[in-house]
Amino acid sequence: MMEAVIFLTLFIGFCHAGDKSCFEYPCGQDDIDISCVRDFLLKKCECKSSCHSDGKPIHLKNAIAYVPNVDLSVDVTDAQTTYYGSKIIAFYLNTKTDRLVLAVDYSGLGLDSPTSYFQIARKAQEPLEVKDYVNVTYAATLTAHVPWGPHGLVPEDVTVTAYITDPMPCYKLGPCVTENPLIQETLTRFLADRETSVKELFLTKAYYFFWIWLQNYACDFGYQYNGDIRY
What we know:
This protein has five helices and ten strands, in the order αβαββββββββαααβ. By secondary structure, the protein is of the alpha+beta class. It has a single domain (2-220), classed as Bactericidal permeability-increasing protein, domain 1 (Super Roll). It is elongated and about 60 Å long.
């Protein structure tokens, strides 16, 4: 959480010191209500109103994540994503940089997939591939940075950053992964620097989690995130 506060402080630094005139808070600064965010997006953007409650799973067709630290990629399919303790902690427009910032904190981001494809890259060899289930719950803050113009939010222009508030989430993996001797070396490397591995893994998942939340909880843009990471 401290990292999120530091980030927002640095971001605000784009305005001249002491100059608060370039910040607009359409839903206030405290106790930001999602219904206000929804109304703002409906008025400014081309999207349809949506509403969802924490604790209820949302279907995710597939999501790809990468862990370069251990040469691993994971393609999660037919998954259920569940949000817990969703809280909007920042929603403002910086008129000097023409950027809208939306930050949401989650006490839990659950992902449950009966079929996930694990691929481990190997030098001068074919990749090692296994298929099994995966279940994990993260805790994180997602921050979306939106270039703001006459047409409001354009999905392809949005960038998402993630800050893990629990660097040690509990993973449940199927036996094809945990009992495969060829996979053990990769798992050992993953666990040896678990904090870095989790950050890398979540970096690519952050976009999926953000768009699923936004389009189910606030406003549906009819956007299908394709796995690209933008900076």
